[in-house]
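Sequence in, structure out. First:
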Amino acid sequence: MKYSKYIFWFAISIFIWTFYACDQNKQAESTLSEGIIEYKTTVVDKNNPLAGFAPGKATVFFKNNSLHVDMNVMGVLKTSFISNSINNTLIQTVDFFDIKQACIQNENELGIENNDYQINFEETKETKIIAGYTCKKVNATMVNHPESTFSVYYTNELGKDSINFLSPYKAIKGMLMEYRLKKLGLELCFTATEVKKNTIGSDIFEIPSKYKVVTRSEMNKLFEDFQK
């Protein structure tokens, strides 16, 4: 009887460990770590002087905790945002006829910039399906403009939990599927429409050799010139 008792508890321990391991493997298999997400984009403030330059969609390439966002305006102006988790930088590139520029910001610079777009988040129990994925709802309130509120949806089924480490959404541990973001004075709303499983090469998170690296002030001036 004494040994039977030990055998019983040993068997229970093995069962629990096996169940836990299988559950962990199931979660790992259900999370897509690299691929492409298509987003529909809309301008939050249609009276913004840059509203005419707002793209109608965005294509996001993701791999683990790195992102590459491509946006195109009338096939002429192309801008990309590259969040690189290896060196903790955000790169913006602009391709406009013979102008090919890139601006690199480090984590400290982005922290200062994100202070102008601080958001308070309130988790809810609500969910909805976006682009085939179950997404959790978060109520968002702008810190500097408490009257401005909106809904944010994210999923744990795509990317890694630190995917937003360089953005104002750092507190959200999951892929953003519906959200707002403001860059260079233009605020856009992003809503995912399609997710594609693809192998993403690491070079997509680097600056192409043909681009000239410029300062943030030079990049800002370029967009100011677009408004004239």
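Second:
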Amino acid sequence: MKNPSKSFKPPLLLVWFFAFILMGFQFSSVAPANYEPILMTRLDMESSVKLREPRSIENPGKIWIYGDIILLIEQYKGIHVIDNSDPANSNTIAFIQVDGCTDMAMKGNILYANNAVDMIGIKPNQNFDDFTVVARNRNMLPIIASPEPSGDWYFYEKLPANTVIVRWVPYQN
């Protein structure tokens, strides 16, 4: 007869089975709760590159100096155009709306910037109070990544056709 004082030991296979089930909960298909993507249709994104009135700087990014003009990125929203001909009294003269913009460079008289996944060339006039989009290379850049390291795959798999992620914002319950 067996000794009842010995504790029950489940078979090793059963322990592995339950551990595998519990690990599966880490990889569920539930959307990340901290951030959500802001989407635009491709047509809306391309047509939204416009010259706007100056606005306050909220989330600055890269800066570029072009003569007396300072170009300052507003992360994921566009580019501030600042007249710096009098450094003691610099003046924001315009805002170029470029959704998904995080980087820019100026070569010659062309301003290059990312418009989410596209690279565009913008030719401003001499006073930077008007411009023309002279080039667009579609889908040249990767999709804008989520601030959450594990959040990308869920939204990329469910991204509607003909839409682009232009930024991520904190999720609002």
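Remark: The chain has one domain: 32-170.
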